[in-house]
Amino acid sequence: MNYLSKSIAITLTTLLITACGGGGSGESKGSNNNNNSENTGSIVTLPATSQDISSSSGHNTSKLNFNTNIIVDSRDNSVSATTKIYNYADHQTGLRVDQSDSIAIFADGQAVTLSEYFSIDMGTQYHFTLPINASSYEFQYTRNGTIVAQGSLDSLPQAFGVSGTVNGDDISISLHKNADHTYEYLLESLTCQYNIDDMTAVVRNIHSRNGEGVLTGDYNKKISTLFDTTLDSLQSEFGTCTVEVDFSSESNSINRVLSSKNISIFSFSTQLAVLKLF
C-alpha cells in the first residue's frame, strides 16, 4: 500500500523534545539515568496565597512541579529553554505564575533574561537562552521570598553532527558521537513533491519515547520498511523525495542537583539529518 496519496497531504509535525516539558509529567523521554534519576530532598510546603486555581498562587507548593526543558541545537550550538509550573493533578495544563511566586535562572551566577508568555492551556511560560559552555546553571522557584524548589547543572549535552547516504532502498546515517552520551532517533519522515504542482505529501513515523529509538550504533533503515513503499513507486509518482530523521542526545555525565521531587530539569542536544532520495 502506498500511503502517499495525491488527495491527502499529511503535515510533518516536529517532535518537541518537548519531551518532557510541554505537558511534562516530570518523566523523561529517554533512557538517560541523569535525566530520570529520582529527585531527593524534602518538598517545601507553603499554603496557597489565593483562591485562583488557574494560578500557581492558588495551590499549596507541595502540589506543584517546577519544570524546565533545555535544548542544544547542534546546527548552530544555540541553547534555548522553557520553564513553567503545573499541578501534578493536571500536568497537561500550565499555571499562571502570579502574586509573590517568582522564577529565576542563573548561568555562572549571572541572572538570565526571561521572556514571559501566557496562554490559557500552557499558563505562564518563561523562554530564555543560555550560554553553551557555562560551568553552572541554576534554577529557582520562590514564594514570598522562600525557596520552594531549586536545582543546578554543571554542564549541558554536547552538540553532535550527522552525515548520511542513500543507496537504493537503504538509508545510512552516521552520528559523530561524543563520549558518555546516549543517542536516540525521534522522528522519521518522508516528504515528496509532485511534478505537476507545488503540492507536497508527507508520510511520518513517530517513535514512542520508551527507548525504542535508542541507538547502540549508527542509523540504518530501509525505505520500504519505514514507509511501506518502494523507490521505484516514489519515482513514478513524484518529482522529488526527501527523508528527514530527527536525533537527540543526552549526557550521562552531567552533575545535576535537585532540591526535591517537584523540580524537573531535562536537557537534550538535537540534530536533523536531511537526505534527498531523488
Describe the structure.
There is one protein chain. Mean pLDDT is 85; it is low at 1-19 and 21-37. The strands form 3 sheets. Strands 1, 2, 3, 6, 7, 12, 13, 14, 16 and 18 form a 10-stranded mixed β-sheet that branches. The chain is built from 3 helices and 18 strands. It is mostly beta strands and 278 residues long. The protein is elongated and about 65 Å long. A hairpin with a 2-residue loop joins strand 2 (78-87) and strand 3.
Unreliable residue runs = 1-19, 21-37
Shape: elongated
DSSP summary, beta strand count: 18
Structural class: mainly beta
Quote the distance from N terminus to C terminus.
Answer: 21 Å
Which band does the percent of strand residues land in? over 45%
Tell me the radius of gyration: 21 Å
What is the helix/strand order?
HEEEEEEEEEEEEEEEHHEEE
Give the topology, please:
Layout: H1 33-36, E1 64-73, E2 78-87, E3 90-94, E4 101-107, E5 110-111, E6 115-119, E7 123-129, E8 137-143, E9 146-153, E10 161-167, E11 170-176, E12 181-193, E13 200-206, E14 214-215, E15 219-222, H2 223-227, H3 231-237, E16 240-251, E17 256-258, E18 263-276
Parallel strand pairs: 1-18
Antiparallel strand pairs: 1-2, 2-3, 2-7, 4-5, 4-8, 6-7, 8-9, 9-17, 10-11, 11-15, 12-13, 12-14, 12-16, 16-18
